[in-house]
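Whiteboard transcription, Tuesday session. T.W. wrote the structure tokens on the left side:
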């Protein structure tokens, strides 16, 4: 080899080729750490979730809703199965799902199963939170009455 031969450096293993850059610019999928747009879109510096107070003196929130696997008919009753009551407690992030016979407090089992589930968390004070759907609001009110009768302080948020 002569002294006047050009020395070629190897590219950095993490550096993309021109073709890889062009491919990535179309959709930015999959995520590439070397791409400024991919890194900015990841959004780790500004997460969308809010900070929840999980300290011992914070009032835990028991967020609840009904889900259904099937199609809702016009009469309000569902076909294909029973509604699933789902809930999440904010402090411990406890998640539960209970099969109910119908939506709302129409069957005593629906109320007692939710009351037992809230009592299982062991909190003396809890906020019950739901959307504005009449059946879940009515269930929340019935659960609140039953919990107050058992000595639990209940706040309601709809």
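and on the right, the sequence the group agreed on:
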């Amino acid at each position: 080899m002569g002294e006047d031969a050009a020395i070629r450096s190897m590219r950095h293993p993490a550096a993309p080729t021109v073709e890889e850059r062009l491919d990535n610019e179309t959709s930015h999928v999959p995520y590439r750490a070397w791409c400024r747009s991919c890194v900015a879109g990841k959004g780790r510096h500004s997460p969308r979730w809010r900070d929840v107070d999980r300290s011992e003196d914070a009032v835990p929130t028991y967020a609840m809703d009904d889900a259904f696997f099937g199609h809702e008919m016009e009469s309000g009753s569902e076909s294909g199965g029973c509604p699933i009551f789902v809930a999440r407690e904010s402090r411990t992030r406890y998640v539960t799902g209970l099969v109910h016979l119908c939506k709302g407090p129409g069957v005593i089992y629906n109320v007692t199963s939710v009351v037992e589930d809230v009592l299982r968390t062991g909190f003396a004070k809890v906020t019950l939170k739901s959307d504005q759907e009449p059946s879940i609001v009515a269930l929340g009110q019935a659960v609140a009455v039953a919990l107050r009768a058992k000595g639990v302080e209940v706040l309601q948020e709809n």
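Someone added at the bottom: The mean pLDDT is 82.
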